[in-house]
Specification:
Layout lengths: L1 E4 L1 H11 L1 H16 L11 E4 L4 E8 L3 E9 L13 E7 L5 E6 L1 H19 L6 E5 L5 H12 L3 E5 L3 H11 L6 E4 L3 H5 L4 E4 L6 E5 L9 E4 L8 E3 L1 H6 L1 E4 L2 H7 L12 E2 H5 L13 E4 L4 H18 L3 E3 L19 H6 L1
Parallel strand pairs: 1-6, 7-8, 7-10, 8-9, 10-12, 11-13, 12-16, 14-15, 14-16
Antiparallel strand pairs: 1-17, 2-3, 3-4, 4-5, 5-6
Helix pairs in contact: 1-2, 1-10, 2-3, 2-4, 2-10, 3-4, 3-10
Bound molecules: nicotinamide-adenine-dinucleotide.
Length: 346
């Protein structure tokens, strides 16, 4: 049997442990797997582009577990009452190929993306960072906000979205979080003024310029989450030139990240090297550091394993016969015989 985890199950896991604890455990799990980077069989994700958006498959495996995620990105989905990003994923045993877990990954993607952002900022941002600009106040934004508040001690959020209703929704959702000050800003430049960390998490299917070089301040850390597809970027190329740039998996980010705007030889550092102490992160207080986040399959691998384990502890999930249970493994045909009850009814 395969365990099925629905949106409801993931919400119950979060209710049982609290979001700060789940985000922290996700960051720990993702960090541990990034530190095992060389143990994984990695490939850039496979993307299917259309005029409206993209659908992607994201596989990764180590010697014992294989996972993949199905995820889309359709920035105009809101007009049809659908989220921009929707996802589900599978965890399987490498030894047999048996799928052990089939899980929702829409909420989980928002949590794992925020946890990965904090993992990067922990290594790259100035210690003592307290103020974060949050540009793009849609579905991912509360998860980013709370991950940085609880995980990194961000106390002031400076918010901007071209859709004022999105910012109002974020403010309503986070109103009353102890120790968190929310400041709504008229534009991105105002939001970035005095920010230690800048998170961009907008959705638009074009080369947008959310952040331009004139908005940068010495020592800023940028967490650029929304530029994650060919032809879909958030940063002026001058921002990358001014920064030390860190990526998840370089072959994928060269194609999908804000990095796609830079020449092939533009220097970047893969995060796992920093986490293992093989490459420096921030070197000076005045460095501008940039995590050019696109989302890598390993983050979903870590998340699937963690959420599967937390569900098992809580007795959540339903066993489903995704794969036939055969008395004789060579007799698949027997599965087509109608159950006795149906034969009687006929
Ligand atoms: N890097 C990753 O791992 C990762 C993971 C998940 C989602 N994403 C990306 O994050 C982005 C946001 O996802 P979401 O689910 O929150 O989408 P969403 O559609 O719910 O929210 C996006 C918000 O961006 C706002 N926006 C668009 N253009 C803007 C601009 N110029 N200035 C300010 N705000 C602007 C929109 O009004 C909207 O409220 C998407 O681009 C998605 O592909 C990346």
């Amino acid at each position: 049997m395969t365990t099925l985890l629905t949106t409801h199950d993931i919400a119950r896991i979060v209710a049982a442990h609290g979001l700060p604890s789940v985000l922290r455990r996700l960051e720990e799990a993702i960090t541990a797997d990034f530190r095992r980077w060389l143990a994984f069989d990695k490939v850039a994700r496979v993307a299917s582009h259309s005029a409206a958006g993209v659908i992607e498959l994201m596989p990764v495996a180590d010697a014992t577990h294989y996972s993949f995620k199905y995820v889309n990105g359709h920035p105009l989905n809101g007009l049809q009452g659908l989220p921009t990003v929707m996802a589900f994923g599978v965890l399987a045993d490498v030894a047999t190929g048996r799928p052990t877990l089939l899980s929702e990954l829409t909420i989980t993607t928002a949590m794992r993306t925020a946890a990965t952002s904090v993992m990067a900022a922990r290594a790259l941002a100035r210690s003592g960072s307290r103020t974060m600009a949050l540009i793009g106040n849609g579905a991912q934004s509360e998860f980013q906000a709370l991950a940085f508040h609880h995980g990194l001690g961000i106390t002031t959020l400076r918010l901007h979205d071209t859709d004022a209703a999105a910012t109002a929704k974020l403010v309503a959702n986070l109103q009353g979080v102890p120790g968190l000050i929310l400041q709504v800003c008229a534009d991105t430049a105002e939001a970035l003024r005095g920010a230690d960390i800048v998170t961009t998490v907008t959705a638009d299917k074009r080369n947008a310029v959310i952040v331009s070089p004139d908005m940068l301040e010495p020592g800023m850390h940028l967490n650029a989450v929304g530029g994650d597809c060919p032809g879909k970027t958030e940063l002026h190329p001058g921002v990358l030139s001014a920064a030390r740039v860190f990526v998840e998996y370089e072959p994928q980010t060269r194609v999908e990240g804000d990095l796609q705007q830079m020449p092939a030889g533009f220097a970047v550092t893969e995060l796992w090297r920093v986490l293992l102490g093989q490459a420096p992160g921030r070197q000076h207080e005045t460095d501008v550091t940039l995590f050019d986040s696109v989302g890598f399959a390993l983050e979903d691998f870590s998340a699937l394993r963690l959420m599967g384990a937390l569900a098992a502890e809580l007795g959540l999930g339903r066993e489903v016969d995704l794969i036939p249970a055969l008395a004789d493994p060579k007799d698949l045909f027997s599965q087509l015989r109608a159950p006795a009850s149906q034969r009687r009814a006929a």
